[in-house]
Amino acid sequence: MNSVFLHAFLSGAIMLGFAAIGLFFVGFWKRTSDRLFLLFACSFFLLAIERLVLVLVSPDYEFRSYIYLIRLTAFLTIILAIVDRNRAGK
Question: Which domain holds residue 80?
Fold first, then answer.
């Protein structure tokens, strides 16, 4: 099997997982109206988008590292959600 196709398949599976987790958190947010779940959902949707962009961009693209800013934004959103939740509890 060609490694390009295998990479695309695995990235698609990971993207589907991130999107499913995002929908899972959207369901919790609708039930509880808690901002933590909304921010977690946004983070996982960002991670799904980052996976999609990684597949669509050519591996020879030299500025590919800028795509990882999407991942950084997602992780910072998760940190922000946790800090916001802990501050709201006090």
Answer: 3-88
